[in-house]
């Protein structure tokens, strides 16, 4: 009988991550949480503010606002157009 060679199992991702320092809380925050924080500010947030914070494209930001904020999270989203022509979005406290 011949002896079969067995392949070595790759190291787990956990063992590779053990040596790394832990990430700060801000780095672990989800993009959705970052957007909600921006929308809760007194001045609210524009589409460009949300794009810069998340790296999303404009249509993705608008989809997030209508889908996640209005429908899923059930938050009240309002918007207003400032004198400079930029629309700013706000989340109203429930």
Report on the structure:
With 94 residues, this protein is an alpha+beta fold. It has a domain at 31-92: Arc Repressor Mutant, subunit A (Orthogonal Bundle). It contains five helices and three strands; from the N terminus they run H-H-H-E-H-H-E-E. It has helices at 13-17, 25-28, 31-40, 47-54, 58-72; strands spanning 45-46, 76-81, 87-92. It has a three-stranded antiparallel sheet. Helix 3 (31-40) runs antiparallel to helix 4. The longest helix has 15 residues, at 58-72. The radius of gyration is 22 Å and the shape is elongated. The protein starts with 12 loop residues before the first helix and ends with a strand.
Name some characteristics of this structure.
3 strands; 94 residues; alpha+beta; single chain; 5 helices
Superfamily at the CATH H level of the domain at 31-92? Winged helix-like DNA-binding domain superfamily/Winged helix DNA-binding domain
Order of helices and strands: HHHEHHEE
Tell me the β content: 5-15%
What's the N-to-C terminus distance?
73 Å
Rg over CA atoms, rounded to whole Å, is: 22 Å
What's the arrangement of secondary structure elements?
Blueprint: H1 13-17, H2 25-28, H3 31-40, E1 45-46, H4 47-54, H5 58-72, E2 76-81, E3 87-92
């Amino acid at each position: 009988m011949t002896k079969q060679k067995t392949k070595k199992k790759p190291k787990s991702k956990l063992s590779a991550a053990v040596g790394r320092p832990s990430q700060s809380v801000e780095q672990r925050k989800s993009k959705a949480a970052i957007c909600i924080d921006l929308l809760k500010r007194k001045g609210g947030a524009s589409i460009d503010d949300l794009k810069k914070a998340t790296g999303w494209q404009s249509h993705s930001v608008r989809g997030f606002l209508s889908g996640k904020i209005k429908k899923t999270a059930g938050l009240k989203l309002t918007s207003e157009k400032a004198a400079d022509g930029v629309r700013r979005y706000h989340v109203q406290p429930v």
